[in-house]
Amino acid sequence: MMRVIVLFLPLLLLCAGTATLADAFRVTTEPQTVYPGDPFLIRITELSSAHHPVASFAGRKFMFVTCGDDCAIAVCAADLALKPGKYRIMVTAGKRKRRATITVRRHEPAVARITLPPDKVTLSPDDMQRVEREENLLKAIWIEHAEKMWDGSFLLPLQNEVSTQFGVKRVINNKTVSFHRGIDIRGKEGEGVRASNSGRVVLAEELYFGGNTLVISHGMGIFTVYMHLDSFGTNKGKDVSKGEIIAFVGSTGRSTGPHLHFGVKVQDASVNPVTFMELKL
Asked: Which is deepest, 42, 109, 146, 235, by most CB within 10 Å?
């Protein structure tokens, strides 16, 4: 009886080892260190195509898209409100789990002091209700998930100078109001604004703060936002291609002159558009 056990034990170990190798996969983050508001990629390699991985990070779940044979990536973001430190990422694929980490570095925001007419800062009860309705409308958009529609890396919609960077602490009429959750790009009235990437228009309407605002869903929880537009070049529900003119520069909403406010959302997290353009997708 002992001889039978000795003969079959190596075979059992070999089978167990083969199953482990077949289900194994590697997880890396690119880059490994970010600032609040920066995007990053979670990359999986050596993963069977039969699995559907999911990543969990800072209370959000991110889905993966293929990036070649046995390769998948998820586009993630360190929320602007995240405190400095090392954060754990959990990736689940089938019954297997892997962990990775991302380090968020401390960043001291620049301060911009802005003077606006009182009626642009102190809202009437009716305006407050309108702003609340519009915030709820946008929140509902950020949680929508569609299939991947983007085509390669993203592009800036205007090739002009950036006048206000992402994350700037805005002090309006000597009162701290908010952090700038996009970038302002200089532009001339009526200048064409191009789609940062391919996707579907999910919003094209006039908002209290953003003026004429257009939002494109690129799939997998990624959105680009275009504000203060003079007019639209497309409509809600339309599919657009990367580089296509979708709107025209204006100064609608809470604006002091013609420019484009350009934002990127990964789910409901505001992302630095400049560093998002650097992602190799």
From this structure: 42
Could you give the dihedral angle defined by the CA atoms of residues 168, 141, 233 and 276, in that order, rounded to the nearest 10 degrees? 40
Model confidence pLDDT, tens digit, residues 111-130: 888 887 777 778 889 999 99
Helix (H) or strand (E) holding 7: helix 2-23
162 and 125 belong to one structural domain? yes
- Which pTM was predicted? 0.88
DSSP characters for 164-199?
Answer: E-TT-EEEETTEEEEE--SEEEE--TT-EEE-SSSE
User: In 10 A of CB 228, how many CB atoms?
Assistant: 27
Q: Which two tokens stand for residue 241?
A: 């291609």
Show the domain range for 177. 116-274
Q: What are phi and psi of 142, to 5 degrees?
A: -65, -25
Stretch among 138-147, 176-185, 203-212 having the lowest mean pLDDT:
176-185
Q: Please give the torsion angle defined by the CA atoms of residues 4, 5, 8 and 9, in that order, rounded to the nearest 10 degrees.
A: -160
**Residue 68 located in a structural domain:** yes
Q: Are residues 260 and 183 in the same domain?
A: yes
Domain of residue 195, CATH code? 2.70.70.10
Whether the Cβ atoms of residue 103 and residue 85 lie closer than 8 Å to each other: yes
